[in-house]
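Fold this: N-acetylmuramoyl-L-alanine amidase
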Amino acid sequence: MKIMLDAGHGYNTSGKQSPDGLREYEFNRAVANYAKLLLENYKNVTVYFSHSDQRDVLLTARTDKANNLNVDVFVSIHANAFGSGAWNDVGGLETYVYLSRPPEAIQLAQKIQHNLVLATGLENRGVKTADFHVLRETKMDAVLVECGFMTNRREAGLLRTETYRKAVAEGIVQALTEQFKLQRKDNAPKVFKVQAGAFERERNAKQLAARLKSAGFDAYIE
């Protein structure tokens, strides 16, 4: 099983940043790195990157690499934006497939969308179609994931955190394991999640999450 992870854009891509200066590529590459580490725990899986930390990679170079390597699936990771770049309230998650709606790509997109909503608690904006280059020019099943809005102040704050980036990577990998029936290696470390509390008031949940983080745990609120 060969999987290509595509961290959209690059460090030098102009305009792809939040109003307070978070570059989209910083988030995209972090999620790709976490996802690769998780996927390395599965049998017969090879992970490739289409992007580079040294330079911006053209879209044609990304899809050519995927096609030449004959990978089985292509997952493009992004953060969204709305409007002219100013803060606004538009938010949530969405996953894209090509206009022809290839059945297996739709199945994977639905699984990714479902798992990301569960992992993050953000609004479900659904699975959509688009004529994006990375969806159109790849010969294998391909999906593009928008993991939150950089122009939404709350979501931009989440995009900066390692906890949220890990949660997104876990959601993507969980979808891949479900879609392709991936089997964990015998010596792969197991990960467990524990619900530490349930509260009627958000501020109480935030207080507990802060105490857990100060104690060295990855904590998030759903």
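The chain has a mean pLDDT of 93. The chain has seven helices and six strands.
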